Amino acid sequence: MSPKAPRILLVNPWIHDFAAYDFWARPLGLLLLAAILRQHGYRVTYCDCLDRFHPRTGKTPLAKRQGRGPFLKTPIARPPGLADVPRTFSRYGIPVPWLREDLAAMDPPDLILVTGLMTYWASGVAETIAELKGAFPGRPVVLGGIYATLLPDHARRHSGADHVVTGAGERAVLEVAAEFTGHRTALRFDPDDLDTHPLPALDLQRRVPFIPLLTARGCPYRCAYCAAAILAPQRRRRSPQLVFEEIVHWHRRFGVRDVAFYDDALLVDAEAHALPLFERIAAAGLNLRLHTPNALHIGCIDDRVARAMRRAGMVTIRLGLETTDFAHRGNLDAKVSAGQFQHAVACLQRAGFTGDQVGAYLLAGLPDQPLEAVEAAIATVRATGATPIPAHYSPIAGTRLWPAAKRAARYDLESDPVFANNAIWPCRPEGFSWNWLTRLKNLCAGVDSR
């Protein structure tokens, strides 16, 4: 790589929220862009504002967390309009002085790329960009990611970025880099063929406590509450053999055992995709721990799939149940029936999975959803021996449920993305109180607090 090649800084921004925790969370898309840029002759540097392993923390995360752990946080002013939320609002990530010192130690970049994940973290993106512009005045800042794709107008008006990119970044990143740096090179991969993409630049992280893994993009379902179809309209898969080779590569390089699947539909067409991968992992004897924080499709689980996951080393299974009101879930999704859920849990139990390994996500706070429906869903899941895990609903612009959410919300959802934050329960049902959340936790644990 030429020492005169343009230098590009990629930044994972701060989070502003009432709660945040590192549940196998990494900016995988940004790290893929870093790898693409390196592949095409750019000099790449990386700054992670959420870095739990910053040398100034002086802490060694506990191994028992299997790659997870709490972010550093600093209390900050609560956003306007949320004075009645009885929780502390914080900046999650490294303190401001640490970021400023890190940026001051860097050679000035020719271009800065920033990602944005949750739309309601927009203020964290804006604060990060302001710091970047203060450290590197005159250097262009380009914003991409989920926030930019779902709310491009808001991002252009409020983020402070000089340019906003929507959609898949791997298709646009080289053109953007060429536009701002003048460096052009022949394309060395096919943006439409995932098997030609370079491995994400996980090595840019200060430490690699787990492998974030994406075996496919897109989802065949079109659930009313989910943005997957907007972010990845087409279903595309990687070769199971190449996915396995990636796992082996990172396992050997960093000695990491934990693998977190980021897929939205890992088990869809399992015969051709997930099963061959699980079989390779099991045969290799790598002693891995596999996790599925993004949820598995319940209707895809049978005894064969359950046994294959067990042999491969799956230890954290999350099922996308969402609701147990099966008679009326047609306006939400059509991905699972009551019989399929019970069958899937039974298959997992026969394979040897315990109740604390098998969790079922349950959406709570949907528009016009009674509190009693959430409580009934928790009871239904507990009756099967699985663990109920409430997933607080966040309204997402562009989804089919967005109009109903706007009608039901106690905030003007279109005025500021912070009002879609699931921590504030924007679509609070009748009878809601913050004390009810304590009851919800107790019910999940099998304790009726009434």
What does this protein structure show overall?
This protein folds into 2 domains: 7-181, Cobalamin-binding domain (Rossmann fold, 3-Layer(aba) Sandwich), CATH 3.40.50; 210-444, Alpha-Beta Barrel (TIM Barrel). By secondary structure, the chain is an alpha/beta fold. Strand 12 (258-261), helix 9 and strand 13 form a beta-alpha-beta unit. It has 14 helices and 16 strands. It has helices at residues 28-39, 96-104, 122-135, 146-150, 152-158, 169-181, 228-231, 240-254, 274-284, 303-312, 338-351, 371-384, 402-408, 434-444; strands at residues 7-12, 15-17, 43-48, 73-75, 90-92, 111-116, 141-145, 163-164, 211-213, 216-217, 236-237, 258-261, 289-291, 314-322, 358-364, 387-392. The protein has a 6-stranded parallel beta sheet. Strands 3-1-6-7-8 form a 5-stranded parallel beta sheet, sandwiched between helices. The protein has a 3-stranded antiparallel beta sheet with strand order 2-5-4. The relative contact order is 0.11. The longest helix has 15 residues, at 240-254.
What is the level-2 CATH architecture name of the largest domain?
Alpha-Beta Barrel
* First-residue to last-residue Cα separation: 66 Å
Residues in β-strands, percent = 15-25%
Number of helix segments? Answer: 14
Structural class: alpha/beta
- Which H/E pattern describes the elements? EEHEEEHEHEHHEHEEHEHEHEHEHEHEHH
Rg over CA atoms: 22 Å
Number of strands: 16
The poorly predicted ranges are none
Task: Give the biggest sheet.
Answer: 6 strands, parallel
The third-level CATH topology of the largest domain is TIM Barrel
Indicate how many domains the architecture comprises. 2
Q: Mean pLDDT across all residues, rounded?
A: 94
CATH class label of the largest domain: Alpha Beta
What is the H level of CATH, i.e. the homologous superfamily of the largest domain? Aldolase class I
Shape: globular
Strand order of the largest sheet: 9-12-13-14-15-16
Helix content: 25-40%
